[in-house]
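Recap for those who missed Tuesday's class. We walked through two folding examples back to back. For each one, the amino acid string is listed first and its predicted structure tokens come directly after. Nothing is annotated here on purpose, so try labeling regions yourself before you check the end of the notes.
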Amino acid sequence: MKNESTTPDNGDQAPQAAMRKSIGVVDGIVLAASSTAATSSIGIGLGLMAAIVGLHLPAIMLLAFLPVLGIAGGYGRLNRVEPNAGSSYQWVGRIFSPWLGFLTGWVNVVGTIVFMAYTTTVTGSAIIQLLGQATLHSIGGLTLDPDSTFQSTLLGMAVLVAAALVAVRGLDLAARLQKYLLIFEYGVLLAFCGYGLFAGDQPFSLQWFNPFDIPSAAALAQGMMLAVFCYWGFESVFSVGEEVGDPRDASRGGFIALTVMLLLFLLAGTAFQRVLPLDELADNGAQGLAYFGTKLAEQPLAALPLIALMFSAVASLQASVIPTARGMYAMGRDGVLGPVWTRLHPKHKTPAVGTLLITAIALALAALALVIPTVNDLIFAAVNAIGIVVALYYALTAAAAAVHFRHLLRTSPLEALRAVVGPVLGALTLLATGGYLAWTFYRSTDHFEVSADNGWFALLVPVLMIGSGLLAAAWARWHHRSPYFLPARCPSVGGEPSTAV
């Protein structure tokens, strides 16, 4: 197999310098766990899901885990054959079509940038909440409001810039920082949620784990998208495959992180429902974890969950910019984007220019999002949009794995369960869920307005993400004449001849 990380075939361009192999399996686990941001998902996502699926948080998290696990099998197997900074962008492009590959990479990048934009606001909101618990409610006569998109975004922007600068310094430093943040976050989550299981006064019910009790098909689809979004990010470890000493370490890191996420979500969902009645859980939304902490402890201990949420948001910002910059690096290396994305830091061998450019784009998008006045509404609008595009590119990657490894159905049926059957079932589930959710958005209203609860607005955002990807692909194909789109220059994964057209 040709080593794409060191001698990429990119037309007449000179080979790019290789990124440094600086991380192992533990660092991979840390990166994947930071990207999925369990504490942030628990802190702001459980309340949103409770408003949709009621007291079935454990059920929806378990249900969503199954297709994601199947898709993770496809990612892991493809990464073992060819670790690549572009991951799904390269694999789908070589197995199916460069157009689908480009679209996969594009919606992944755009979705992550949207995530970074709203997580910037979430980070600022957590800081303001923490200041409020420290009895600092105003600065210079300005009343601090954690649900103000404007105030939260300004604070979060400063944090995003700092996180990007650390990412430029190198994966080893970023992984060490995130490791300490994760240890604190998980320690706080385990302590408070474990205590909440026994201290809560809401009666426990096994029906909480029964997905057949979810109110409606629309609630099931919406809840599934939100839950899949919570697991989203495990695949970030595969985008640093060229910087991992052993490709199998990336797969191990992704699977371990996913399993830990499941256990944390089940624990937290059960604990939240033991402590908080449904109306309180749903009403607190983005401030759910902070409210949960105040129900279980007095200050200053009650502030610990909020500090954990803030750390999680910071880590997820950094863990988002890292794989996104590497995805853009791979696309620039193939000539579908400009050469600026391939410039590595002379000392740290990281895509430094790309990292800073992505940060600037996320900052600009965060500023545009100020038209949505409250943090809760911003989160809801962003999560719905990202959930649909995540379902799309997960499904494309899983289908690519199934097609490429279909011979295992004859030669190794047991291995085929992981590389073919699991990915296919996961892809079909997510496509059906995302399609049904898009249909419910379309039918939910007869007019358009910029509002998080307007179905046409919720549908417009993923449509723009996908449509812009098709336009960008056309520009790269016919204006830049990128060799990525030429069948002769696009060998399949593993170095076999490609059938892409």
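Example two. Treat it independently of the first, because the proteins are unrelated.
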Amino acid sequence: MVVSERLLKWVMRLYPPLLFQRIWVVKFLKGYRGVEVRIRKSFLNKNYNNSIFGGTLFSAADPFYPLLFHQIFTGKGYKLMVWSKSASIQYIKPATTNLFFNISLSDNDIDDAETILNTSGKFISTFPIDIYNKDGEICVSLMNEVYVRNLNFIDTNI
């Protein structure tokens, strides 16, 4: 189902797994070309070292590339299955302040995905996410592998 960027922003803001981890969607870019996310440090998500739990950081990054692909291609009329297939994460420095990250999809990313969905029915690709502290230093670097399947694809090579 395609929804407006504004509605999905509020759905994600109020979604309990993100809300209680203090993960806040600032905005989705027009046409779902990207998203801005903030992670607020609070007693709900800090560990005994007074830094943000690694699980919170991982949870913050996990859903957004699949959401972007789903909204873009559903808007184009595709029936899809989209999910995060895998991810790898590196904790570079302790997250002792509020954090933020921005991700975006280029026209080339979308065109490549659409070409592959129309020729093989399945698109799998890895995308980076760097999460920054208030001083602009990278605290977390993550690679998110996204799986997108075109459920209407019929393989004519069988």
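Answers for example two:
The chain has a mean pLDDT of 95.
The beta strands are 23-28, 34-39, 80-91, 99-104, 122-133, 138-150.
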